[in-house]
Task: structure prediction
Amino acid sequence: TFASFFLIFGLFSVAAGLLLIFLIFALLAAERKPEMGMLRALGMKRRHLVAVFLLEGLGYNLAAALVGAVLGVLVAFGIAGVMGQLVGEFLAIEPAWRPRDLVVAYTLGVVVTFLTVAIAAWRVSRLNIVAAVRDLPEPSLPRAGRRWLVFGVLGLLLGGLMLWGGKASDTLFLFAFGMSLLPLSVAAILRRFGVAARLLYSVASALVLAYWLLPDSLHNRLFGRMQGDIEMFFLSGVMMVAASTVLIVWNADMLTALVGAFGRSFRSWLPAVKIAVAYPLASRGRTGLTIAMFSLIIFSLVVMSTINANFMALFASDRAGAGWEITASQPPTNPIPDFRQALADAGVDTSGIAAVGRVLQMGPFQAQARQPGDEGWSNYPVSGFDAAFARESEAPLQLRAAGYESDQAVWEAVSEDPTLALVDANTLQSGGFGGGPVQFTIQGVERQGTTMQPVRIEIRSPLDNRVKQLTVVGVIDPEVSSLFGIYVGERAFQELFPEPASITYYLDVAPGADARALSRQIEAGLIRYGVQSSVIADEVAEQTSIARGFIRLIQGFMALGLVVGIAALGVVSFRAVVERRHQIGTLRAIGYRQSMVAAGFLLESTIVTALGVLSGLVLGLLLSRLVLFSEDFNESFQFETLIVPWGQIAFFAGLALAVALLMAYVPARQASRVSIVEALRYE
Result:
């Protein structure tokens, strides 16, 4: 599960890195455009240009992949160290590496980068010889070349095949990939026949976004229910960011109109602002690549932060302890006849205890469950509670069977009837990511609002293979995170498990009593029974802190992708100074001040970064809302409102913008100090 998490989230950084390679080769091609034009005019074939770029890229690739593999091992050791601190109490995690893994990582890096370089080299080798020799922009044709028609037809065939394969196998990844390819492929075909590029690409990207933003219920009604896992997170990010970037770069000239409309308020800086907006739009390719890099990383961070914030709020609510404040667990070898009396005999003041409930427990590997008719058994914990626990608990139910007037009535009925049971909300999930040894799901639960039709299940003792059939009449609300597993009455539990694995007493503390002090007194007074006492609020806080630490570890891992976006911005900014040296001289000659030139370069970087950050932020929040309120999630978890962690989002967005300004400062300062005479002579 850990490996899958880091693989999926690491793919965002990999995708950003591939975009950076394309960007670097686009800039190399722009810098060498006259040289390539002269070589083509002298008889060099396109394949020769491709070979030149491939050889150069391979040289970078072989060295960079080695550095990356070594740094990857160091990052992995750091991650293992942090994880060891987080879960060291439960799992022993020690950093380790094998030479074979390093070789595999190095080889994968070289191969993937080489393929990317090959595609980029083929792309930059397509140039107009006359325009290249004169260092002029490529001529804009009313319609695209034949290769776009070929790509469009191939895309249609591939998309249709994916749709068929996804539908036939109920695989959402294939189906969604095919649905995303179709509009883009149709746009490529129509572009060949002269349809306006802006209209085509805007409509195609809007259709892709509309598909990915379909509510889960509507998608299921239109296309049927299909199976998807965490890989959908990566696919949705790539497709939504790609569509959003295309939509932005083909309609970003509206920014120029906005600048003109509001230009009166900063008239003295208007010329610098207009150029800062216009120049990125003149190079849609490199601008789009830079926007996509920032958007991908911010998107992944926003989705992770938002989903985590909502789950933390759900599981760490005031209802987590079911109305109890202290738990006291003991092994069954030395049972306590009367808990209150035992405390009194030990000299503990019991006036601070308002109520006591008892729960007998079998751990997740000491009990099994399934639905009648299923072949295999699933490991799942089973607990038996007494009448006092049922009477005093404040554990709301997400669903309850019809005929019960309240949740409390269901709890009391289960404690009295040995044929009834309650289950936690995790059992309603169609399947957890990564599987695992502890996983039991119930199929076919028919719900009508907050009511459900009773469902039959079977539980088994692995020790003697005795089986007991039960009827599930309620599902515990996921907010009660301290209750996990199948819950039955004590009598039903003892029929199947005469010797429980552990006994836990739940205590409700009287108003004004100190729960932590009482917990320490209970543990000290009942030490001869082997009792271990803890405050439920402290346990929940510890569990959520571990989960929060793991999420932050993943966020830090994904935030490494921001380094790629920052590197891209630095490359573009430094290249812009060289590429526009003559333009800078002209502007200075007609009256631009040094401060205006510097401000123009800073604004360019800020605008591009802000567009990427804003795109990733909006898309991340939209996808988070769709995921949290989807039918799959609502089977187990019901979120009332979307909680947005604005603090974390502001930190990541502010970090990206601040570093973007920092990376643009040096080239902007360099541009402002260019000599007018030298700049005008520059070719």
The CA atoms of residues 63 and 372 lie 59 Å apart.
